[in-house]
Amino acid sequence: AQTGVFRRPRVTLLPTGTEVVPPGRPLEAGQVYDSNAPALTPLVREAGAVVERTPVLGDEPEVLDEALRAAARTSEVVVVTGGSSVGERDLLAPAMERLGSVEFHGVSVKPGKPVLFGRLDGALVLGLPGNPTSCLLTAWLFLRPALRRMARLPPDLRRCLQAKLTAPVQPVRGRDQLMMVRLEGEGDELRATPCYRGSGAIMSMAQADGLVALPANTGAGAGDRVEVELL
């Protein structure tokens, strides 16, 4: 008997940011711990890929260029956390324009607008926001399904249910809104409580049971029924 064998896709995580330090090191003023790479590692593995992480890269163009080139030589997918927005220290888009190509930069989603996708020497490059909640949500939406397909795994079946919102949600102009919720109750009495407290609030992801997506320019009131995708 014979069976098909496929190599698992290889992913390199490149965390960036001068202000980002490894967990366990004492924090100085203005510094934050790298929570993105440790959180993304199990997500990538669960999606069927092999993952490697580099040390945190500072905000120097030549350092990022070399790290991108090296990662593209050994991986099918390179994931960069941070540096994908449009500030002076956001170096990913200029680096990809120099070294490879940018297929798109920016998505109409809140949180997660600065997502970047490009190609470099045959590798796919995905730039995710540095803010932890934005990073994990966009990885769930874009990275995870892509890796599952590359790993020849079946598409995830969306597990959804209906619940009543416990608090109103204001509309976001021009962008779809993603909101993490905590579920309470049973059966038809399920209640969904928003637990999103900003794109950098990592605890909101830890407390969440599901995800609610609202179309652009659309809000919801307390007591409204919404569809919740279980995480």
If you had to describe this structure to a student in words, what would you say it looks like?
By secondary structure, the chain is an alpha/beta fold. The chain folds into 2 domains: 10-150, MoaB/Mog-like domain (Molybdenum Cofactor Biosythetic Enzyme, Chain A, 3-Layer(aba) Sandwich), CATH 3.40.980; 160-230, MoeA, C-terminal, domain IV (Beta-clip, Beta Barrel), CATH 2.40.340.10. It contains 5 helices and 14 strands. Strand 8 and strand 9 (123-128) form a beta hairpin. Helix 1 (36-46) runs parallel beside helix 4 (132-150) and helix 2 crosses helix 3. The longest helix is centred in the middle third of the chain and has 19 residues, at 132-150.
Itemize the secondary structure elements and their pairings:
Layout (H helix, E strand, L loop, with lengths): L9 E6 L4 E2 L10 E2 L2 H11 L3 E4 L7 H14 L2 E5 L10 H8 L1 E5 L3 E2 L5 E5 L2 E6 L3 H19 L9 E6 L10 E9 L6 E4 L7 H6 L2 E5 L10 E6 L1
Parallel strand pairs: 1-4, 1-5, 2-3, 5-9, 7-11, 10-12
Antiparallel strand pairs: 6-8, 8-9, 10-14, 11-12, 11-13, 13-14
Helix pairs in contact: 1-4, 2-3
Keywords:
single chain; 5 helices; Molybdenum Cofactor Biosythetic Enzyme, Chain A; alpha/beta; Beta-clip; six-stranded mixed β-sheet; five-stranded mixed β-barrel; 231 residues; 14 strands; 25% helix
